[in-house]
Amino acid sequence: MGNRIYNILFHTHTVSGIVISVGLYVIFFAGSFSFFRDEITNWQRGHNVSLADEIPGSVDGYLNDLSKDHNLYGRDVELYHYFNERNISVSLTASKDSLAKEEDKARVFFYVDTEDKSTGDYRGSYHLGEFLYRLHFLDQIPYPYGRYLSGFVAFFFLFAIITGILVHWDKIISNFYTFRPWAKIKTIWTDAHTALGVIGFPFQFVYAVTGAFFLLKGLLILPVVMGFYDGDQNKLFEDLEYNHPEYAFYNERLEGPISIDLLIANVKEEWPDFRVTEAHIFNYGDQNMHAYISGYLGRGTKLNGLGHRIYKVADGSVVEEKVPLTNDSYLDGVKNMMFRLHFGDYGGYGLRVISFVLGLVSCFVILSGIMIWLVARDKKNIPEKRRKFNHQVANIYMAICLSMYPVTALEFIIVKFANHVDMAFMYRTYFPIWLVASLFFIFKKNIAFTNKWTLISGGVLGLMIPIANGVASGNWIWSSIANEQYHMLLVDLLWLFLGLTTLWIAFFKLESKKNEPMPSKA
């Protein structure tokens, strides 16, 4: 390519990369742990959960329990189990009965523990797995600004990785194999950035595209809504099959017993290997009561096997169905595969572990990009004032990013010994500790020190996490193996691996060189 095009691509890559670097690092670091959101949740709570992603137990039993505390008549009741944990989501709409009490005319949402039947709202049921999952798309920033911000970060990241590949296209094969650990510092950072960037390109491209799609789709569909649907968003959602159908409320009580379990059993009999994730009951207890049974086929049967069936409860007739084995609609394929690609849950633990490692590799690519940017601007022909400013920027970036590792490890220990963990607790502990750690390393003004001691502190704390789990709950690694508590075992082994790896890097691979890329009068 010509020099002009090369320079445009190079500067686009550099500017887009450095502007989004901190946000992108947070997204990838928290996102790497989000692959194991459910395992972290069950590890924190000491729960042993089966590996089947479907509503556990009896739906009729849950409805009977709900009826003790809530008048269900005339309401739409939704039971939903998406994450692999003991809790299921329960949503109750306002009663359509005109004679209903005032408390029955309010919408209700809460979680039900399928083992001990306890209930809790979203804030009260918050946990570390949910916190890291939300952090990976900056959802702690007030809605919708955090999501839009992370969406634009993903969008500009797409620019950065495409321009990066184009810049290195002529030497992409040779750069793939090039790494010179004994060369000067700039060469080390450049080799690592290029080689790992090329290796992780397919992974990063998938997450840039799917992340931007999920978080910016509200803005992307706005012209479609205005141009083709006259501003009516609900019509678009109906075409995209996001909205449930509506059924009129007759205000005539349904006689006889109600059994949703029988309908679910009928669906599973006709559709072998079908996993029911949602049971939505319309007009509960009314003559026009309908039951929407939704789920998917096991990944081994069909990768994109979404399906549902709607029954009219009064006579057991099938009103509508989408047979998962023959459902090959383009719409479902796109919607489902976008989720599957982003969550990496279609290949079992192996794929998630690989995705976790590639996520951390991407974090290193981001950090090496910051260092390349700094070293390239730490030259004698650049004014001292600008060199100091560049170093301050890189120092702040590295302090914020690298301190996430020990802070996250410490939070795993804190939640294990806390009496009660909720949203307020998570916010009061994680963010202030992260702020203090970041400020400490920022004012230290030594990137080499930050790099070394975040690895050492994070490694030591990481090795303490399995010990904390054993002391707090008695779930030592050997007992997790004996009791087949694979969720807890995975989290403990994950931190053992991270702790040992980072300590090995800190003590045996980091050199105390005097040629750290910083101005002499920083």
Can you walk through the features of this model?
The protein is an alpha+beta fold and 522 residues long. The chain is 58% helix and 9% strand. The protein has helices at 3-34, 37-45, 59-69, 128-135, 145-167, 172-176, 185-199, 201-220, 222-228, 233-239, 260-270, 330-343, 348-376, 384-402, 404-417, 423-444, 447-473, 477-482, 486-509, and strands at residues 77-80, 87-92, 108-113, 119-120, 274-282, 290-297, 306-312, 317-322. Strands 4-3-2-1-5-6-7-8 form an eight-stranded antiparallel β-sheet, covered by helices on one side. α1 packs across α5, α7 (185-199) packs antiparallel against α13 (348-376) and α17 (447-473) runs antiparallel to α19. It starts with a helix and ends in a 13-residue tail after the last helix. The relative contact order is 0.11.
* Share in β-strands: 5-15%
First-last Cα distance: 39 Å
Name the helicity range.
Answer: 55-70%
Unreliable spans: 512-522
Q: What is the number of E strands?
A: 8
| Strand order in the largest sheet | 4-3-2-1-5-6-7-8
Q: Would you tell me the structural class of the helices and strands?
A: alpha+beta
Instruction: Please state the overall shape, judged from the principal axes of the Cα atoms.
Output: globular
Largest sheet composition:
8 strands, antiparallel
User: What's the pLDDT, averaged over the residues?
Assistant: 87
| SSE run | HHHEEEEHHHHHHHHEEEEHHHHHHHH
Count of helical regions: 19
* Whole-angstrom Rg: 26 Å
